[in-house]
Specification:
- This protein has a domain of 191 residues: Metallo-beta-lactamase, Chain A (4-Layer Sandwich).
- It is globular, with a radius of gyration of 18 Å.
- Helices cover 24% and strands 22% of the residues.
- Strands 1-2-3-6-7-8 form a 6-stranded mixed β-sheet, covered by helices on one side.
- The N and C termini lie far apart (37 Å).
- Helix 1 packs parallel to helix 2.
- It is built from 7 helices and 14 strands.
- With 294 residues, it is an alpha/beta fold.
Amino acid sequence: MSNYPVNMDIKPEVQAFFDPATNTISYIVKDPDSNACAIVDSVMDIDYAAGRITYDHADELINYVTANDLELEWIIETHVHADHLSAAPYIQQKLGGKIGIGDKIMVVQDTFGKVFNEGTEFQRDGSQFDALFKDGDTYTIGNLQAFAIYTPGHTPACMTHVMGDAAFVGDTLFMPDGGSARADFPGGDAATLYDSIQKVLALPDEMRLFMCHDYGPNGREIEWETSVGEEKAQNIHVGGGKSKEEFVEMRTKRDATLSMPRLIIPSLQVNMRAGEVPKDKDGRPMLKVPVNAL
């Protein structure tokens, strides 16, 4: 892991916010030496049946930042989520900060630009975001140096963001009893996901890992923090030295049984635009439903 600037001596304060509607955990990560912070994987609320968007979850994050006199420098998306809508532009409008995602967002934009039959006005160059990260890219949150690890497999644009002794893995891994994320979305690949997970597991055993989702397997309470050591030893899909062949066979069989996420259609349209809701030719917010395309 010498290619990555790991610094386990820096221990950022991490505040988690669980969204029960989508089983998503958003995070506010504070530099221990300043009031600077980052938000990771925010959520915008949608009543899909009613076509109504609200901001209760995002307001909770905003209120926390404001109440604690924090300075928001980054709004990080670990990937283009298929199960919730990002509130990044709404938060940026209220608090500032730069919106960042992996540079392979362009692959996702090209893929789903076709699925949703987007016109030429939809830019497929990632320009909706303020920063596009490549593997190993560093950035700062106050005095805290953070970096991004390219961890595709769930989607082509997934990245793990490491901030001191804390890593935010997106959908690359779940809690040890939850295993791993599906790899059957367009551009996903189980073998690639296995290799990406090995990158995460090569971080120091004491590295804190923060999940983007938790579903409380077997009725347990919702949890979102574990460690590299715990995942290596106990993860039901990759722990204990399971081989790539075992993982790919398991993942492929399991993915074939899964239904599409409830919010995949609105999520992809919004998230590939950095959280902006698309508009029709008259400038009205409008979502499409492609038929038999996913």
